[in-house]
Amino acid sequence: GENVEQHPSTLSVQEGDSAVIKCTYSDSASNYFPWYKQELGKRPQLIIDIRSNVGEKKDQRIAVTLNKTAKHFSLHITETQPEDSAVYFCAPNTGTASKLTFGTGTRLQVTL
Amino acid sequence: DTAVSQTPKYLVTQMGNDKSIKCEQNLGHDTMYWYKQDSKKFLKIMFSYNNKELIINETVPNRFSPKSPDKAHLNLHINSLELGDSAVYFCASSQDRAGATETQYFGPGTRLLVL
Question: Does A89 touch chain B (CB under 8 A)?
Answer without folding.
Answer: yes
